[in-house]
Amino acid sequence: VVIGTQCWMRDNLRTTHYSDGTPIPEGTNPSSTAPYRYRGYVTEAQHQQDPAIFLRCGYLYNWTAVMHGAPSSNSLPSGVQGICPDGWHVPSMSEWQQMLAFVRNCSRYWCNNNSNNIVKALSSKEGWNSSTSTCYSGNTPSSNNATRFSGCPVGYYYYDGSYREYKNYLELWTSTQNGSNAYRQTIRYASDTGLEACYTANGYSVRCVKDE
Fold this sequence. Notes:
This protein has 212 residues and is α+β, with helices and mostly antiparallel strands. The chain has 5 helices and 11 strands.
């Protein structure tokens, strides 16, 4: 999906291999050193019964898996292919900020005529827990997704080994490090977007951006 001058993947990444064919193991324990993917929000039985859930929401990955040995980058574009297929790259914090600035600059994406209320425009039309707040993803979700970004509330894998916030949050990695942590972008069911540095052992979703 094209947003401004950027072309983003419309679904969360669900690859099990890097572009060179190296497998990404499915993890059962948190790690900030070994690359892992996780799928705890959907059991194998649920996956078999309704594969569309997994196809839409993809895997969760720790930051080590996302970067595939590349150094941190906050460039525009990041220059980090990492976990992405050939011709695509992991977005930097600056690239996320560029995309969000474009959305905030377009009144058709605003809720209640407020440029700060853009989370519904980035959120999918299904899967969110209900919210009573007019401009949040969980309120009247049929009016979501004006950008077609289709943010899916898959939640995340926490470094203590628990899965959290399924149907409430979508957490997406950046290629940008902050000390021993790394930044992730959040889309929440009952608040707006947020950018925060988090543990690299956490498992978050990934959206790749097409190379220029």
